[in-house]
Design goal:
Belongs to the bacterial solute-binding protein 8 family. Keywords: Signal. This is ABC-type Fe3+-hydroxamate transport system, periplasmic component. InterPro entries: ABC_Transporter_SBP, ABC_transptr_periplasmic_BD. The protein has 16 helices and 13 strands. The chain has a 4-stranded parallel β-sheet. By secondary structure, the protein is of the alpha/beta class. Helices cover 42% and strands 15% of the residues. It folds into 2 domains: 143 residues, Nitrogenase molybdenum iron protein domain (Rossmann fold, 3-Layer(aba) Sandwich); 161 residues, 3-Layer(aba) Sandwich (Rossmann fold), CATH 3.40.50.1980. Strand 3 and strand 4 form a beta hairpin. Helix 7 runs antiparallel to helix 8.
Amino acid sequence: MRKLMALFLTLTMSLVLLTGCGGTAEKEGGTVPTTAQVQKQKVTDLLGREVELAVPVQRVVAIGPGALRLVTYAEGTSMVVGIEETEKKASPGRSYMMANPDLKKLPGIGQGGPDTAPNEESLVSVQPDVIFVCTLVDKEKADQLQAKTGIPVVALSYGDLATFGEDLYRSINIIGTIIGKEKRAQEVVAYLKQNEKDLGERTKDLADGDKAKVYVGAVSMKGARGIESTQAQYPPFKYIGAKNVVDETGKNGTVMIDKEKLISWNPVFLFLDAGGYALVTEDYKRNPAFYQSLQALKNDRVYNLIPFNNYNPNIDTAFADAYYAGKIIFPEQFKDIDPLKKSDEIYQFLLGKPLYAEMERDLGGFKKLELGK
């Protein structure tokens, strides 16, 4: 009896010490914080709002273009308790959903989409500890959503869509803090910065006059577009220091050009977004003379790119496109790069799954295009 009593006291003291030190309990699917670990914390979101919540949370939702993607990057997928209906629809190239197909089995929390209002009733029904939101709301609307639902609302941002940058990195780190994945968030930010640095350094010593002119057409914008749809400050080109002819417009983001302008620019390399390639081939049949006047077509320098603009940018694919474009435009500077292997490395790190084969199946992958053949 004395031995049993001694054993009981020992176990009890161990449990008290463990709880006092903020120990953890194990459950299937990972480590669950004890009550002692959960604490109130204030975070300043990307709208400048100070939000108080108990961290780390266990149940999250993410609404608006790109919010869910950032949660998956931070390895918060298992904490997601509902997704927007638009996320459940077939959408080739939406990498985070390709890597996490089981998310589609979760309850719906509203229609979703860039031009919709959050559905307060649906959000409350899944009982999240936090609502991450991107793009859908301004400061006033974020406050209103929080007041109506009684759930902390934390706004995120991708920042300048030409370079992503500090707003994006802050958003990822905020998610990491809230879901208890600080180390993972820091690793994601470091990895993105490392790739950005590597891409830039490869061509930094090339004079602008020594660079070939390039153009990307058929860039998706709320749906497929033809060759007139392009992008100034196009991230894959910007990262590698390519000479994007559209940048001379002084604009930033999606640009619709007059087709005749493309003739005067006459780029050496022509890239086409796979999302709009079918429209380009149809246009070619109607007006082959226009396309045949372009030196890129004459010299067989037309290439396919995987679309990355899909409910805000798939950052993983944007970087994959940058390495492929670098390999084509600057072969000497990228001679050590296998774009297919590099793409899978990026997808694996950010999403836990190599996705290039699926991208190739659905969107053609990285390849030379032969218009009119």
